[in-house]
């Protein structure tokens, strides 16, 4: 039987690891982030934090086992820092984006692989269209 804690008694330990990582992101605790994940995910989360001083994540659901955690995470923040979009952002990728001062919110799936109590690999599918639309960086034409 998996260990239980009072906050999330039904969660697998790796699910709790994601709860702890989200808490570290929301607290802007970069050391806490680095303790819970490898270089790639740590760098990606730092990149999000750099562009958004009030970045927040909310876990909508989690499924976890001994090797993998899958979750739907709702992100939100105000784009108030310099930000360069990654290749997954499409046509605007690798283009420096000056702060827009606009708030955005979007949810997307994340799959994280766990080894020895640390997230060592991840895949996610940010809803770039929703984010860029809310930031005023793309528009819908008739």
List the helices and strands and how they pair.
Elements: H1 13-26, H2 30-36, H3 39-51, E1 56-64, E2 68-78, E3 83-84, E4 96-97, E5 103-115, E6 118-124, H4 128-134
Antiparallel strand pairs: 1-2, 2-5, 3-4, 5-6
Helix pairs in contact: 1-2, 2-3
Explain what the structure shows:
With 142 residues, the protein is an alpha+beta fold. It has helices spanning 13-26, 30-36, 39-51, 128-134, and strands at residues 56-64, 68-78, 83-84, 96-97, 103-115, 118-124. A 4-stranded antiparallel β-sheet has the order 1-2-5-6, with helices on both faces. Strands 3-4 form a two-stranded antiparallel sheet. A hairpin with a 3-residue loop joins strand 1 and strand 2. Residues 1-6 have low confidence and may be disordered. The chain has one domain: Roll (Nuclear Transport Factor 2, Chain: A).
Which consecutive residue ranges, at least 5 long each, have pLDDT under 50?
Answer: 1-6
Number of individual domains:
1
Q: Do you know the CATH architecture?
A: Roll
Classify the secondary structure makeup into a structural class: alpha+beta
β-strand number: 6
Distance between the termini: 56 Å
Key features of this structure:
142 residues, alpha+beta, Nuclear Transport Factor 2, Chain: A, four-stranded antiparallel beta sheet, two-stranded antiparallel sheet, 4 helices, 6 strands, disordered N terminus
